Amino acid sequence: MNKLALKGNIVYAKDRDKLEIHEDSYMFVEDGKLVAISKTLDKSYKDYDLIDHSGKLIIPGFVDLHLHAPQYPNRGLGLDKELIPWLDTYTFPEESKYGDMEYSKKVFIRLINELWRLGTTRAVVFASVHKESAELLLDMFMESGLGAYVGKVNMDRNTAPEITEDTRKSIEETEEILKKYRDKSSLVKPIITPRFAPTCTEELMGALGDLALEYDAAVQSHLNENKDEVIWVEELFPESKNYASVYDQYNLFGQTKTVMAHCIYNTDEEIELMAKNGVYAAHCPYSNYNLSSGIMPVRKFLDKGVAVGLASDISGGNSLSMMSIIGGTVQASKMKWLDTDKELKPLSFSEAFYLATKGGGSFFGKVGSFEEGYEFDALVIDDGDLADIKDLTIEERIQKVIYIGDDRNIVERYVRGEKIEKPF
Amino acid sequence: MNKLALKGNIVYAKDRDKLEIHEDSYMFVEDGKLVAISKTLDKSYKDYDLIDHSGKLIIPGFVDLHLHAPQYPNRGLGLDKELIPWLDTYTFPEESKYGDMEYSKKVFIRLINELWRLGTTRAVVFASVHKESAELLLDMFMESGLGAYVGKVNMDRNTAPEITEDTRKSIEETEEILKKYRDKSSLVKPIITPRFAPTCTEELMGALGDLALEYDAAVQSHLNENKDEVIWVEELFPESKNYASVYDQYNLFGQTKTVMAHCIYNTDEEIELMAKNGVYAAHCPYSNYNLSSGIMPVRKFLDKGVAVGLASDISGGNSLSMMSIIGGTVQASKMKWLDTDKELKPLSFSEAFYLATKGGGSFFGKVGSFEEGYEFDALVIDDGDLADIKDLTIEERIQKVIYIGDDRNIVERYVRGEKIEKPF
Lengths: 424, 424
Known about the structure:
globular, about 425 residues, nine-stranded parallel β-sheet, TIM Barrel, 13 helices
């Protein structure tokens, strides 16, 4: 049995409203799960391996609830367009390259190494339409030790010809992946991934919903990102009440565990349906800036009881750093507060920290917090270069490192109690 | 005579609308000034020292047009408040510490090292009210080799008692600094710095305007950052037409070289006065997010012919990186575009790059571009870790490194033709 005791300044968010802080304390981990936090190391813990990080900060690993692996090479490029022309001009051409396994591997090595470097211990990931490439990505995440949901994209219309799938083949390949990977790893799982309603026929979505139910598989897609997209969905699905109900009618909206990216233009009815069905929202502030999409009214979703996490959404988003995205989330919420005539209160630091850890982590189960029974995903942070001028509280130190630090401050990463080294 | 030839991929913005790109070319520098760019190294340049950065990017150094040196220790802290309570709770208490020269030095070492690390080769800087500390900062910038305007802050009302100045003493000390430093260095200059209208009596502003004219000294202050502040100024100066005219009536608004930070809530009349008087606007997107101030309509200022530069505004701003602020500027302009019903066109990448180099650089003279006769401030960028997956154009490479790179990509820094090493 793997028994660890980590000593340091322990910080996590059990609830949104405040950070839990255990200064100079011990965390005890058995078989990857947290069993206790204590100020002292009494003899009942004498057979635990002690890792002493006295003076450093220990926080939960970050969770990125939405990103596109094959768009990694496009990061920082082509941010002069809105969603639909951006997809056509930059994204679909890049995604069409992933029939090439050598290219896939080259990209995925860099992506997974960078997720590791930035302290993202769990991620929910779009692959491309290519089955073999998606399987490679599943295999590579397993090898890395990081946790992930990885989805082969399904799309059979309204996209570039070279990545438009045959409907039957798309369904069959998806089922093959589900069969092959559903029990292969408890850390890395397949996820059903209709790209978004406009690129999926009703036949395809119907079959994917059936697969979700049959295999109790998770689902990810996009929802209400851009006004033109919302109008397009209305035209394509004239009989649906709204965008969310398109997914809902095909059992792709919370009938199994589901996450929807963006959710900027949800109606109140759509927000309430997400809360009712337990559908997660992945908030992607930098992507939403870059593609001129808008700002998601996160406060409204939280008030109505929707589960929310944060996400990079590369390469619509330029930054893969959840530290940076926590800051961007607070900032975006302040602009939303002004936009709404001070109706939607800005998110506090602890709220954004919660969303990047336990908020998104709960999509993976008991992940993203240091409560008893939680899987021990953690980052050890050395903020010595930031905290040496004046005396700071632990809470001030964690704010400072998130707002102005970077991956250089992360010195160790753990997933389920295992220390993870650079994967590739 | 110092004669340099630098080889590499040369990128700069002469105008806002496009980047000038000289692939695999030579730049010739004599006595700190650029004399020519050429594809070949002919024998007329045989007595130039060749520095070969083939394959790398060479761009102008960045210019930060507004930052507060004594707020450096507060970076990333206290971003849960709006301007006025933020000043009272976090900023004024920190700024009251700079009577202590040991503390001042400790902070300024870190600040100047970090500006250097991040590729900011010129900065326009607020010190605190403390004369000795401001002089230390002037001396330390001179020692560093970076270019700067540094201003001792003037404020004689409406602030914390320990940093409220006696009006006469504030004026006298300002004049002493002007006399002592105006001819000491051509790279580092004093600048007259009324904090902002609400903390300055009319007597103080009147005397500062007189000093500006007498010594032909530059001026910096704040303008229209926050709605409550604007209302406060209206109450304090009921006879002034608007906020800008308060400064204008005291010869602090373009009568000598002047820069005003923020400019979010300027009326059209105020924007036109800035254009007419040649007053610079320093756009501080991250600060304006963090303090819930709003988004400056930069496009409107550019259309009306106002000179605009970019700025970190630490510690209202959390990031001191101009690379990050270029990205933030484009992003903020996209949100402004949505806010104005698509009236104010978003800034392009080249526009934001221009603002961070030549836009702000022109406040220092012929700075921020690689045109003939310009002072040679430059950064050598190694983007090898970002550009190795697919073939990119030089323009794509520069976008990528600005949007997703960081200081680790900067391998050399030049100011006026001198290579600058880590200052302290």
